[in-house]
Design a protein that fits this description.
With 405 residues, this protein is an alpha/beta fold. The protein folds into 2 domains: 217 residues, Vaccinia Virus protein VP39 (Rossmann fold, 3-Layer(aba) Sandwich), CATH 3.40.50.150; 105 residues, Rossmann fold. The protein is built from 14 helices and 20 strands. The chain has a 7-stranded mixed beta sheet, sandwiched between helices. A 6-stranded mixed beta sheet has the order 17-16-15-18-19-20. It has a 3-stranded antiparallel beta sheet with strand order 5-6-12, with no helix packed on it. A hairpin with a 6-residue loop joins strand 5 and strand 6. Helix 5 runs parallel beside helix 6.
Length: 405
Amino acid sequence: MTHRCLVCDTPIAPFMTFGPMPLGNGFRRPGDSAPEYRFEMEPAVCPGCTTFQLVRQPAPEQMFHGEYAFFSGTSRRMGEHFAGFAESVRRELPAKDPFVAELGSNDGIMLRNFARWGVRHLGIEPSANVAEAARAAGVRTMVAFFSPGKAREIRSEHGPASAILAANVMCHIPTINAIAEGIELLLAPDGILAFEDPYLGDVLEKTTYDQIYDEHTFLFSVHSVNAIFGRVGMEVFRAEPQWTHGGSMRYWLCRRGARPAEPSVAQVLVRERELGVAEAATYERFRRSCEAQREALVAVLRKARAEGKRVVGYGATSKSTTIMNYCGIGPELVEFITDTTPTKQGKVTPGTHVPVRTHAEFASRFPEYALLFAYNHAQEIMEKERDFLASGGRWITYVPEVKVL
């Protein structure tokens, strides 16, 4: 089957497959006998525009809906991160009546800062349940998918946007060209676009292949962001690496020529050329690294269970769906996963059907090992779980390599 790049329509071919994959957030009730949706998860890199992408993806309505299971505000450290992001944007806003729009604003974790400052704002969030949580926090939010038509509607009501923001959203959207067109329509002439997403460079360096799942149509680099938004006359003027999600990049864009490119852009572009983000050999090495990491992780888990030790997962993340299904990790290797998200508790993991339980069940009888799926929150988690370590418990991690800590 011939696939074509979602950005520039160049023919593309997958460099590997992760096999039939369920929805990353497709948690189910135990005993649910309905057929479980799966799709062949195959990444490719476009030789034309260098964009890393999935060659097929579920329909957006299957992934983002009224029972969407991810709430940004459940992590204290993420709240602090987005407060810092908001403050950085605030420094760029015009003094007179700025208007800030955020795409995929989730539960309002970032926009609540602008609400507190009295800045006009609007969140555009397709999942009704998290949008309602944002409204309850005083954040003005509309339930909608962003599009050029929606951009015109927003501009008509609110005027042009001084800043358009997105966090861990842009990589979700297969119709990225239409999103770029909508942003160009909504943005004020001197406005800025600031968004952050998991960074391709970090995925390649650390073998964080769990960043690849149904919701992540793309993994961006500065090269590909310039290619995508260059089509609507915009360019990156600042690039800032972030700790979030095991390695992200915050991209700041403006209309072409409106601001000089800062040194960070050239620095990141050099790093990307050194990594070979546009070279086929890079992705062959990445495929082999994924396979080696899979073998090492499964070996550790099998050894623990053979010795009669209990292994419990920590964090029922979307990323864990990729790890568990690619590695074949089911209840025979991991007893359950502890997670603090109420909508996931009492359910089973997508595809592998490992029970998801409360933190109280984890703490009531600590296992010998905890498999840290939520590794991007490792510092926050390990500070909180001193009692687990005091009990003799040990962490199993797999980024950038499989280790028992």
